[in-house]
Amino acid sequence: MAITLEGDVPTDSVASPPSSLDVAGDRTFRGMTYMFSWMTIFLVLYILYEIAGKAAPAVKEYGVGFITGTTWDANRGEFGVFPEIWGTLYSAILALMIGGFFGVSIAIFLTQDFLSPKLELVFKNIVELLAAIPSVVYGLWGIYVVIPAIRPTANWIHEHLGWIPFFETSLSGPGMLPAAMVLSIMVLPTISAVSRDAISSVPHKLKEAAFGLGATRWEAIVGVIIPTSATGIFGALVLGFGRALGETMALAMLVGNSNQVSLSLFSPANTLAALLANNFPEAGKQEEGVLMYAALILMAITLLVNLLGTAIMNRASRRLSGVAR
Fold first, then answer.
1. Domain 64-323's class?
2. What are the residue ranges spanned by the domains of the chain?
3. I need a surface site. Which of 140, 163, 306, 320 has the fewest CB within 10 A?
4. pTM tops 0.90
5. CA angle 113-119-124, nearest 5°?
């Protein structure tokens, strides 16, 4: 396109207005994004409607006692999921403590020039490959590798420190600790990837300014980089916690499927997801309703965790931006 100039001011624009085809394509793409967004919302509402509809008779019959009860006996028609709620939260918190520490540590290790770019890429891909391993493989690995490896140490701790509630039972097989250890590895890729993105987004000039003030590498990491990326790291922990709450197959194989409430890391337990997986194949009509009730409780716990995490992240973001009152 020819451009004529009068002095230094162009009289013709290089950019041309969008054609009718461009406008149509833009409107089509915008409409499709709206459609898929609303379809996602409707799908979640439909799933909630179906589960709530099938759980309604059990909710009406058992009420709050189903949440606070500790007995699950289909033959006598007694159902309670408090031990499963306890096991779900306990295993997820333990996994978050272990996986969160190592996930954030890996993110720091892979973003702060501790490795050459080639080695950094290799380690990053290895961590991300952990997410591709099937849940049942993690469960088998936990049964045949993790439990035999930690059993001697766990039993020694029980013999010498059994007066502490966390070690009051021995580890005879599946239990809370091996389940939490395997679960922590399963949430590790999520926490590491999101934390790595959050730390990488910190402006490099902030670190240079810290170095200019005489800070060492670790002083810059702990005093500048981590606080600046704290909101993103917390988001990674929330995502990892949500992932841990819904894990099914590995926990069904490793947690022990025992209907009890215990602080001991070595005692067997149960989770809501494992309860659903183990009982649905042989569930009768009555038991199907109470299992749907349990599924509704699991969805509510996950929703509350995400809402709480979002609220905390928004508050932290406002504080960092100076908008908090």
1. mainly alpha
2. 20-62, 64-323
3. 163
4. no
5. 85
* CA-based nearest residue to 211, from 221, 202, 201: 221
Find the mean pLDDT for residues 249-265.
88
DSSP character string of 178-245: HHHHHHHHHHHHHHHHHHHHHHHTS-HHHHHHHHHTT--HHHHIIIIIHHHTHHHHHHHHHHHHHHHH
Q: What is the 3-state secondary structure (H, E, C) of 123-183?
A: HHHHHHHHHHCCHHHHHHHHHHHHHHHHHHHHHHHHHHHCCCHHHCCCCCCCCHHHHHHHH
Phi, psi of 264 (to 5 degrees): -65, 130
pLDDT tens for 20-79 read 787 788 888 898 999 999 999 999 899 888 888 888 888 888 888 888 888 888 788 788
89-141 pLDDT tens trace? 999 999 999 999 999 999 998 888 788 888 888 888 888 888 888 889 999 99
